[in-house]
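Task: sequence design from structure.
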């Protein structure tokens, strides 16, 4: 890790908790404090900013042991826990920005895409799941709205790209609130 940190004068360094513990703030201590201190001591840019990648709740049908054991197989419970833990991290560690991918994924789940954004119940699918995450990162870091973007991977439909962009855009604007996209249909 030291080699990577010292390789460049990074403007941003992103952090996250492993997904199954992402909603359990008590699992972060003292590790996050130690990690941030380590990063500050080894970063070559004294103005480096820390970002927090908010992970997403698992699919409702996930059989991941963390989902079963820690969140009672309840997607909204997991999402709310991740949101709360992320808010604590932002405040306690003066994180520059939360990247609200978890909220973007929940937004997309309200559309006709439903709960299909994960390929195995917990990892994002390699098409519109990952594109939704990428759109969230892009809009938050650049300030450029993704809604009007013409780019889309050739592996997704125009509708899937539209939902991905809208989900990300609303997550950046309202990072702590799920915005329903149920009104979006494939004819839009």
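Answer:
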């Amino acid at each position: 890790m030291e080699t990577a940190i010292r390789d460049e004068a990074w403007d941003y360094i992103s952090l996250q908790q492993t997904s199954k513990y992402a909603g359990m703030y008590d699992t972060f201590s003292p590790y996050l404090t130690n990690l941030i201190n380590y990063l500050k001591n080894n970063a070559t840019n004294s103005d480096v900013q820390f970002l927090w990648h908010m992970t997403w709740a698992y699919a409702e049908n996930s059989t991941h042991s963390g989902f079963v054991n820690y969140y009672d197989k309840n997607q909204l419970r997991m999402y709310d826990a991740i949101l709360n833990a992320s808010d604590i991290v932002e405040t306690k560690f003066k994180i520059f920005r939360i990247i609200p991918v978890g909220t973007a994924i929940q937004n997309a789940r309200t559309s006709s895409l439903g709960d299909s954004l994960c390929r195995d119940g917990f990892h994002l699918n390699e098409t519109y799941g990952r594109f939704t995450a990428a759109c969230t990162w892009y809009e938050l870091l650049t300030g450029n709205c993704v809604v009007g973007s013409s780019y889309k991977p050739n592996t997704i439909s125009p509708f899937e790209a539209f939902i991905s962009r809208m989900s990300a855009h609303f997550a950046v604007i309202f990072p702590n609130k799920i915005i329903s996209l149920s009104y979006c249909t494939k004819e839009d």
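The two ends are 46 Å apart (CA to CA).
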